[in-house]
């Protein structure tokens, strides 16, 4: 059997650097490097909290999935129900009993945070908003967002509706990684419907050119919330703040976290899926060696200036017996920083090894018996 990895294998241990982490006054927050999945600092990262309009990231994700699968199209004309028209909070001001292009509604949820647009999309894609919320919960399970539950598509207050800061960061990373064609919409600074132009509520888009998403949220229960991502060079960081005291404070806090990530850590690819890392002896096969490679690429973060201290240790049997299937799990590669294991990646066979003929099998069985005799 093949080894099963999480949705995106992540760094499991972070070594603290010399720069002190910032102090943030909020209910919960995290700072995560996107490619490694490493959370380098945070507070209450797994505490389920009201996420307000950050909920729309999951609503967006489900619609992106349906677009990818061909279940809906950007050009679809989506009806605006009375329920959508009556939505409270932020709106795009969609007129009841009209039809609006799906792409237009989707952009409104991203840029204007339109609750009316979110409900209309949920009803069109899921049949009802309640049914769509179940699709959101299914997507959350697939992404291993274990501290999130959805009751609606908007983030308006509802009992049991919650997300954790860490889950929000992982969801943001999934959107950036899986749907780059839509992620660019999160950087758009304004959008117009019914001759009403509204500005993106993520003010960091104006304050830092490296910030290119994602979403704000605010209700009385949630406080002021913000998840933002920034890319500088090849590094991308994601910061989440939940339960801040004001719009201005959440922006300052998120930018402080992002700046800390870029200043305190280096991100790099430790191994590539295409790397042929090590060979092992094979008995009874058409060839005498099998090459092992990582099951997937692995990115890690290390404190600034410690890249040269990274090394890789390999753990596998000293020999294998044919047949060996292509991609069969054969061991583990441990990414080390000094004496600390910061990530593990399964090793698999780069190519399969078929059984040799009867003579090869006979000769190798004798060699294997001798090997076992002298290794005991």
Automatic annotation (TrEMBL):
Keyword Protease among record annotations: yes
Binding site for substrate: 215
Keyword field: Carboxypeptidase, Cell shape, Cell wall biogenesis/degradation, Hydrolase, Peptidoglycan synthesis, Protease, Signal
Pathway(s) annotated for this protein in UniProt: Cell wall biogenesis; peptidoglycan biosynthesis
Matching InterPro entries: Beta-lactam/transpept-like (IPR012338), Peniciliin-bd_prot_C_sf (IPR015956), Peptidase_S11 (IPR018044), Peptidase_S11_C (IPR012907), Peptidase_S11_C_sf (IPR037167), Peptidase_S11_N (IPR001967)
GO BP, sorted A to Z: cell wall organization; peptidoglycan biosynthetic process; proteolysis; regulation of cell shape
Active site residues according to the UniProt entry: 53, 56, 113
Pfam family, one: PBP5_C
Catalytic reaction list: Preferential cleavage: (Ac)2-L-Lys-D-Ala-|-D-Ala. Also transpeptidation of peptidyl-alanyl moieties that are N-acyl substituents of D-alanine
Domain (Peptidase S11 D-Ala-D-Ala carboxypeptidase A C-terminal): residue spans on this chain: 265-355
Gene3D superfamilies (alphabetical): D-Ala-D-Ala carboxypeptidase, C-terminal domain, DD-peptidase/beta-lactamase superfamily
One Gene Ontology term of the molecular function aspect: serine-type D-Ala-D-Ala carboxypeptidase activity
EC number: 3.4.16.4
Xref: SMART domains: PBP5_C (SM00936)
The keyword Signal is assigned to this record: yes
Family: Belongs to the peptidase S11 family.
Biological role stated in the UniProt entry: Removes C-terminal D-alanyl residues from sugar-peptide cell wall precursors.
Protein name: serine-type D-Ala-D-Ala carboxypeptidase
């Amino acid at each position: 059997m093949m080894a099963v990895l999480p949705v995106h294998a992540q760094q499991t241990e972070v070594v603290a650097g010399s720069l002190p982490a910032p102090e943030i006054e909020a209910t919960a927050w995290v700072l995560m490097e996107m490619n490694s999945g490493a959370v380098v600092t945070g507070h209450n990262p797994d505490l389920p909290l009201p996420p307000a309009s950050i909920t729309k990231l999951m609503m967006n994700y489900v619609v992106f999935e349906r677009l990818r699968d061909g279940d809906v199209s950007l050009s679809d004309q989506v009806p605006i129900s009375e329920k959508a028209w009556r939505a409270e909070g932020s709106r795009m001001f969609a007129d009841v009993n009209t039809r609006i292009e799906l792409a237009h509604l989707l952009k409104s949820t991203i840029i204007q945070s339109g609750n009316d647009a979110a409900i209309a999309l949920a009803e069109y894609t899921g049949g009802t908003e309640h049914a769509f919320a179940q699709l959101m919960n299914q997507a959350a399970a697939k992404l291993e967002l274990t501290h999130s539950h959805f009751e609606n598509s908007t983030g308006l207050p509802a009992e049991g509706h919650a997300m954790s800061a860490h889950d929000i960061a992982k969801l943001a990373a999934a959107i950036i990684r899986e749907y780059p064609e839509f992620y660019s919409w999160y950087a758009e600074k304004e959008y117009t419907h019914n001759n009403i132009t509204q500005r993106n509520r993520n003010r960091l888009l104006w304050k830092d050119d490296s910030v290119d998403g994602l979403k704000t949220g605010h209700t009385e229960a949630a406080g002021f919330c913000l998840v933002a991502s920034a890319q500088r060079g090849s590094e991308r960081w994601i910061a989440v703040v939940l339960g801040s005291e004001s719009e201005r404070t959440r922006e300052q806090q998120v930018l402080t976290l992002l700046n800390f990530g870029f200043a305190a850590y280096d991100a790099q690819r430790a191994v590539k899926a295409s790397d042929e890392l090590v060979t092992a002896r094979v008995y009874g096969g058409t060839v005498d060696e099998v090459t092992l490679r990582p099951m997937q690429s692995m990115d890690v973060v290390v404190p600034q200036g410690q890249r040269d201290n990274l090394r890789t240790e390999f753990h596998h049997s000293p020999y294998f017996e044919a047949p060996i299937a292509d991609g069969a799990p054969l061991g583990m590669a441990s990414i080390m920083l000094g004496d600390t294991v910061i990530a593990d990646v399964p090793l698999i066979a780069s190519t399969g090894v078929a059984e040799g003929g009867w003579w090869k099998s006979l000769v190798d069985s004798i060699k294997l018996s001798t090997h076992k005799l002298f290794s005991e």
